[in-house]
């Protein structure tokens, strides 16, 4: 099972993706996702210039050894670029191992612990009627759990609110724009804190008590503001409040936890288990939000989620459109196999992305399933990928009214 080739393919069908394809001497190929939104070419270079030469000639079966070798031999630890590159290699090797075994990857991870993977979709609106329409549209698509994001009076552009196209076509929120400079947006935490509880009251009034509702505060609040929001949202029984503070300061969550029983989810910007040490050991969160793509792949995510399981903390794997179908499929195999599954984020990709990445996973009645093809179940159409070269795209950023840069 010698590795004879490793190719980095950067493509931009609906958005940019970094894909690693590893080939073994007996012709088995495996795919890994290394997409890092707005910083894609840094991972492509890390892989091409510094990792691919080290892979050639290695035994593709030795996944743990490859992971430890890439992590420790670099000397410079952690970080999103390094951990996305390691994730791409790790997932590609798991894809190869599962294909060689003739099994879908989840079988190698212990087999299915459930029949389907509960997914949540993203509803949003500039006002309450538009938000209701978006929630109804998601229910019609089959979603049984819904994230709710809304505009706030006094703020021009708020994270997570899709600009409606007006022509009735589906338009999911995509934060990265194909522009040469990051777009500048605005923010006002006091206006947001005043507005949001009323929105959830309206949503519960319209859709009843049962529908699981989620919300993402996107790192914008201080600990005491987050505590206030969690408390204010308690009557609306959220499934989770996500990224209520930036959370690099893990101890800050002690303060939030003292004040609210709203479940907390954190971690989409984290990339190793070390970012969670205090959060998990002190049970300061309820859901781990890391992406397989940004946290060192299946090997590292399995260890992180097993650690979380000892504290009754569950998975909530990151699944925005900036995770490619390869990263998404890898997440689904893990979701199906682990015991402490919580929920899976699912934003459907566009039609061009589906042309480039042939997928076997399914979404039926609100539940995802990775399918039963050997491997992770995604194949890359390289000719199609070549039709969509990289396009510079950036995430936005925020300034407060006085011009201060703020978390977006
Ligand atoms: O803003 O993945 O919960 N999901 C999110 C995402 C992130 C993007 C950033 O690349 O917060 O939409
Ligand atoms: Co988020």
Characteristics of this structure?
TIM Barrel; binds (2S,3R,4R)-2,3,4,5-tetrahydroxy-N-oxo-pentanamide; alpha/beta; 3-stranded antiparallel sheet; 8-stranded parallel β-barrel; 408 residues; Enolase-like, domain 1; binds cobalt (II) ion
Low-confidence stretches: none
CATH architecture of the largest domain: Alpha-Beta Barrel
Instruction: Output the CATH topology of the largest domain.
Output: TIM Barrel
Instruction: Look at the helices and sheets and give the structural class.
Output: alpha/beta
Bound molecules: (2S,3R,4R)-2,3,4,5-tetrahydroxy-N-oxo-pentanamide, cobalt (II) ion
Outline the biggest β-sheet.
8 strands, parallel, barrel
Shape: globular
Q: What's the gyration radius in Å?
A: 21 Å
Q: Alpha-carbon distance between the termini?
A: 45 Å
CATH class descriptor of the largest domain? Alpha Beta
Helix content: 25-40%
Number of separate helices: 13
**Structural domain count:** 2
Which strand order does the major sheet show? 4-5-7-8-9-10-11-12
**What is the typical, i.e. mean, pLDDT?**
96
Number of strands: 18
What is the CATH homology-level superfamily of the largest domain?
Enolase-like C-terminal domain
Strand content: 15-25%
GO molecular function: magnesium ion binding; mannonate dehydratase activity
Protein name: Bifunctional D-altronate/D-mannonate dehydratase
InterPro entries: D-mannonate_dehydratase-like, DgoD-like, Enolase-like_C_sf, Enolase-like_N, Enolase_C-like, Mandel_Rmase/mucon_lact_enz_CS, Mandelate_racemase_C, Mandelate_racemase_N_dom
Organism: Micromonospora endophytica
């Amino acid at each position: 099972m010698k590795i004879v080739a490793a190719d980095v393919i950067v493509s931009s069908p609906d958005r940019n993706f970094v894909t690693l394809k590893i080939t073994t001497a007996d012709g088995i190929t495996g795919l890994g996702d290394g997409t890092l939104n707005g910083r894609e070419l840094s991972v492509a270079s890390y892989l091409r210039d510094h990792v691919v030469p080290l892979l050639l000639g290695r035994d593709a079966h030795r996944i743990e050894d490859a992971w430890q070798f890439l992590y420790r031999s670099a000397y410079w630890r952690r970080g999103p670029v390094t951990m996305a590159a390691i994730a791409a290699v790790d997932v590609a090797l798991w894809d190869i191992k599962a294909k060689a075994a003739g099994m879908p990857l989840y079988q190698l991870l212990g087999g299915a612990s459930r029949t389907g993977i509960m997914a949540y979709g993203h509803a949003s609106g500039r006002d309450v009627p538009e938000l209701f329409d978006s929630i109804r549209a998601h229910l019609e698509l089959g979603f049984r759990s819904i994230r709710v994001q809304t505009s706030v009076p006094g703020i021009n552009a708020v994270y997570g609110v899709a600009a409606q196209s007006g022509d009735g076509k589906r338009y999911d929120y995509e934060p990265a724009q194909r522009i040469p400079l990051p777009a500048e947006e605005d923010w006002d935490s006091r206006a947001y804190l005043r507005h949001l509880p009323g929105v959830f009251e309206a949503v519960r009034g319209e859709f009843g008590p049962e529908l699981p509702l989620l919300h993402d505060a996107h790192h914008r609040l201080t600990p005491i503001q987050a505590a206030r929001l969690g408390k204010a949202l308690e009557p609306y029984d959220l499934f989770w409040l996500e990224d209520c503070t930036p959370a690099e300061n893990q101890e800050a969550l002690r303060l939030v936890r003292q004040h609210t029983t709203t479940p907390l989810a954190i971690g989409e910007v984290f990339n190793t288990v070390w970012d969670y040490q205090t959060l998990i050991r002190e049970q300061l969160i309820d859901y781990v939000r890391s992406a397989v793509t940004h946290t060192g792949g299946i090997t590292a995510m399995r260890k992180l989620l097993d650690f979380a399981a000892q504290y009754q903390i569950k998975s909530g794997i990151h699944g925005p459109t900036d995770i490619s179908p390869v990263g998404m499929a890898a997440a689904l195999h893990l979701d199906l196999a682990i015991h402490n599954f919580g929920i899976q984020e699912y934003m459907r990709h566009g039609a061009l992305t589906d042309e480039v990445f042939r997928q076997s996973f399914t979404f039926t009645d609100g539940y995802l399933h990775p399918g039963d093809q050997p491997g992770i179940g995604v194949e890359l159409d390289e000719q199609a990928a070549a039709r969509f070269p990289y396009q510079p795209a950036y995430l936005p950023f925020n300034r407060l009214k006085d011009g201060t840069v703020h978390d977006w």
